[in-house]
Design goal:
This protein is an alpha+beta fold and 424 residues long. It is 37% helix and 23% strand. A hairpin with a 2-residue loop joins strand 5 and strand 6 (153-156). Helix 5 crosses helix 6.
């Protein structure tokens, strides 16, 4: 029986090792109902507790019937059932994003460490062909992964080596929208693959094997380059162009929700090879941060480089700001851990981060902080942590990466006090 074969494969690969609570994505179609039937039958043998996560997309009249059936079945079997209702403008991508965001939310809230989906070998072949048609990078031809990090745990696909025809036919609901040609995957499944299979009846297997061989190739490259510090700019640029190309691909693969196009990838490679420093947007709130020593991909919320927090320190007071303690007072014995900033009047001092247009008077000329930081080769992260001190709306000092830049005093200025600065 096929279920026995699947069980033996799961045990051999230890797919559920370390997992106790398992969430099953169930649509009501034949694939997911097979998955539910299998895991329900083998949960004791696998030593897991299962639950159902279902999305009612509200796109078909049968959607409410599917929800009702699954909810009643789960209640009868004593299995937790989690439901969400799709909102927003429907598309393949928006529906998929909604589903996986919901699954992730349930996992976090209910302490599930594994999400299981019913993707099989035919889905893998479709995915690989779709990516070939779209012109994806070689790395993306690995298609669907059997196990990957997801939410607080893992996303597992135990049917990925099984074709749809090998699975039994339990009770399920037919989704007739799968026959429509409006969606790309449906056109691949119902039109392109059948037509191309006339040239090669084993096309699905060939595409599946292509994904596996690509995975082996990329793993071989990773094994051979594992001692290379990829994001060290000097080391990266010492490699051949071919090695740089695949090192960057491997680095990007660590960001599961960042799938760049070939053009986006080439743009990133060009920036790393030719630019000196800066923050360059990529997609999905990811940015490439580049400085003189290294590069890094970061996921950040849209924001400016500058911070808006600020405090006011008055004469005779002590304030902590970022990594420093500031004491505004007249002369006293200097601690070994302190340094001082001379002050020529006793008005309050504003401490804040850098802002657009900031400049400091250095004697015969004023210099914008942006240019100062570039010339001194401070990294983007160091610039974000810079502390700017102002008196009477004029910048009197800047502290960045434990270095201090002071405003040039006028000839007739008389020092009235000091600002004692100590790193916390």
């Amino acid at each position: 029986m096929m279920y026995t074969k699947i069980y033996n494969y799961i045990e051999e690969k230890a797919l559920f090792k370390g997992h106790k609570k398992v969430l099953i994505a169930v649509s009501g179609g034949v694939d997911s109902m097979n998955l539910l039937s299998f895991l329900h039958s083998y949960q004791k043998a696998l030593n897991i507790e299962i639950a159902i996560a279902h999305i009612n997309h509200k796109q078909r009249v049968e959607s409410d019937d599917e929800e009702k059936y699954l909810k009643n079945w789960a209640k009868k079997e004593g299995i937790p059932f989690f439901i969400a209702y799709f909102t927003g403008t429907f598309s393949e991508k928006s529906a998929r994003d909604f589903r996986y965001n919901f699954f992730k939310k349930v996992m976090y809230q209910e302490n599930y460490t594994a999400l299981v989906t019913a993707h099989h070998a035919d889905d893998q072949a479709e995915t690989v062909l779709m990516r070939i048609i779209r012109g994806s990078l070689l790395r993306h031809l690995v298609g669907i992964k059997e196990i990957q990090a997801f939410g607080p745990g893992q996303l597992i696909r135990p049917f990925l080596n099984i074709t749809k025809s090998q699975l039994p036919t339990p009770f399920h609901f037919e989704d007739y929208s799968n026959q429509e040609t409006h969606y790309f995957r449906n056109r691949v499944r119902n039109n392109y693959l059948p037509t191309l299979s006339q040239e090669n009846p084993n096309l699905n297997k060939a595409l599946f094997d292509l994904a596996n061989e690509t995975q082996f190739l990329l793993q071989a490259l990773q094994d051979l380059t594992e001692k290379i510090s990829v994001t060290d700019l000097d080391i990266f640029l010492q490699q051949t162009e071919a090695v740089q190309y695949f090192l960057l691909q491997d680095y990007l693969s660590h960001f599961e929700d960042l799938m760049v196009s070939k053009k986006q990838f080439q743009d990133l490679l060009y920036i790393i090879r030719n630019k000196k420093s800066g923050v360059y947007p990529v997609k999905n709130h990811y940015s490439l941060t580049l400085d003189y020593r290294r590069f890094e991909i970061k996921k950040i919320l849209p924001e400016t480089e500058f911070t808006e927090d600020e405090i006011l320190i008055e004469y005779g007071s002590v304030q902590n700001f970022r990594d420093y303690s500031f004491s505004y007072k007249t002369y006293e014995l200097l601690k070994e851990s302190e340094f001082t900033i001379p002050l020529y009047n006793l008005t309050p001092i504003t401490l804040r981060g850098r802002q657009t247009g900031d400049k400091i008077f250095l004697g015969d000329f004023s210099k914008k902080l942006r240019r100062l930081f570039i010339d001194e080769k401070f990294t983007i992260d160091q610039r974000k942590k810079a502390i700017v001190g102002l008196q009477e709306n004029q910048i009197i000092f800047v502290i960045i990466s434990d270095k201090t830049y002071l405003r040039k005093a006028a000839k007739d200025d008389i020092m009235r006090a000091r600002l004692y600065v100590e790193k916390i």
